[in-house]
Amino acid sequence: MPMKVVVLGLRGIPDVQGGIETHAQHLYPRLAAMGCDVEVLVRTSYVPKGLRRFGAITLRRIWAPTTVGLEALVHSVLGVLYAGIQRPDILHIHAVGPAIATPLARWLRLKVVVTHHGPDYERDKWGSVARRVLRIGEDLGMRYASSRIAISQVIKDLIKSKYRVDAELIPNGVVAAKASVETEFIRSLGLEPRRYIVQVSRFVPEKRQLDLINAYQAISPCGWKLVLVGALGADAYSMEVKAAADRAGVVLTGFLKGTALQETYSHAGVFVLPSSHEGLPIALLEALSYGLPVIASDIPANREVGLEASSHFPVGDVRALAANLLRVIQGSVNAEEMAARRLWVASRFDWDRIAEQTFRVYRTVSEKSSRS
To answer: Residues 29-41: pLDDT tens digits?
Structure first.
C-alpha cells in the first residue's frame, strides 16, 4: 500500500509566492513518484476552487481567515482535525507557526513530522503577541513531533541547544536551470542583458528592499537598472518600497513565474539578497543555478550556502552593499565561473536526494510507531 502523507503549513501550490510553497512544489511530486499518496492542505484564498490536483498530488482546500496572524493558526487547527479523520500514515507540518497544532495531532494519535524552516518570530513584521505565538509553536512542534527536519545546520543546532532533541538535516534544493536565450520580456521592461541587478523575494521588512534601493542610488551605475521581483501588497512596507522605487527609477515586475521568471534570471548581471532573516534561501539557490554572481547579507542562513567570503556584506550596511555592487558591475561576466556555479549548486542542493532523505524520515517514523 502507498504511504499516505498529509501536508500542512503552506499557503498553496502551484506557483504561490513563498519559500515553503516553493519547497513543497518541488518536494512532493518527487515523493509521489516514489510511491507516496500525497494530499496537500491548501488555504482557500490562495488556490482556485476548481483546482484539485497538481500532477499526482491531491489538493484539499481548507478554509482560513484572511486576517494576518489568524490565517495560519486557524488553518493549522482545522487541517489537523481533517487529518484526524483521514488517518494518514504521516502528517507533515511545515514551519513553527503551524507547528503549534502538533500536540493536538499527537492527541489524535497521528504520526507527525515537523520541518523547521527558521525562527519566524525573528521576522521584522511581527509584533510582540505574534512573536510569542510563534515561539510557542516552535516549542510545541519540537517537543511533540514524532520526528523533526531542519533545513540548515544553523536550525539543527538551534533545535538541539534549545530543546535537547535531534533533527534530520535536509536542506532546500534547486532545480538545474535551463537559461533562456529569449529577451522579449526583459526588453519590454526596458532592460538590457547583463546590465541589471535583480532581487526575487516577497515584500516584507526582513527582505530589506529599501537597503538595496539606497545602495543602488549611491552608486548610480551608468546603464544598469535595479529590478525587484515579487508581489507588492497593500501594507505600509510595500507602499514605502514602491514609493522609494518610483523615485529611484527601479523596475517593479510584480510576481513572476514560468518563462518570464526564467528570462529575468537568465539575463541578470547580479543577484542580491540583503535580508535580515532567512531559513535557507531558495531564491539564492535559484540564482546560483543560473550561474549568476550573487551578493548576500552575512546572516548565518546565507553563509551556510557556502559562497566565498567576498559575496557577503554586513546586514544593514548600505555602504558595504554599494561597494559590493560596484565591484560586480565593474567586473566582467566569466562564462567558466557561471558554469562552475551551476554545477556546484546542482550537486549540493539536489531535490531528488532531498526527497529520498525525507522518505527515509517517513519510513523510520512509520516503522517506529508500528513497533510500539
So the answer is: 999 999 999 999 9
What is the count of structural domains for the chain?
2
d(CA 215, CA 228) in angstroms, rounded, equals 14
The rounded percent of the chain whose pLDDT value lies above 70 is: 99
Quote the CA–CA distance of 278 and 19 in Å, as a whole number.
9
| Predicted pLDDT at 210 | 97
Enclosing domain of residue 65? 3-173+350-365
Band (245; pLDDT cuts 50, 70, 90): very high
Q: Quote the cell numbers at residue 35.
A: 510511491
DSSP label at 310? Answer: G
| Amino acid sitting at position 304 | E
Residue 347 has which C-alpha cell? 550537486
| DSSP output for 145-208 | -SEEEESSHHHHHHHHHHHS---EE----BPPP------HHHHHTT--TT-EEEEE---SGGG-
Structural domain contains residue 372: no
- φ, ψ of residue 116 in degrees (nearest 5): -90, 110
d(CA 181, CA 176): 16
pLDDT in tens, 36-64: 999 999 999 999 999 999 999 999 999 99
- How do strand 57-62 and strand 90-94 relate by DSSP bridges? unpaired
The CA-to-CA distance between both ends of the chain, in Å, stands at 20
- Residue-level pLDDT at 59: 98
Strand order in the sheet with 3-8: 53-54, 57-62, 36-43, 3-8, 90-94, 112-116, 147-150, 168-169
Residue pair 11/24 in contact (Cβ under 8 Å)? The answer is no
220 pLDDT tier (thresholds 50, 70, 90): confident
C-beta separation of 323 from 302 below 8 A: no
> Based on the domain organization, do 54 and 133 belong to the same domain?
yes
Give, in order, the Cα–Cα distances in Å from 150 to each of 72, 105, 141: 20, 20, 12
- The answer on 132 and 95 residing in a single domain is yes
Q: Is the pLDDT of residue 351 over 80?
A: yes
Q: Work out the burial of residue 50: count CB atoms within 10 Å of its CB; fewer than 13 is exposed, 13-18 middle, 19 or more buried.
A: exposed
- Residue 308, Cβ neighbours under 10 Å: how many? 7
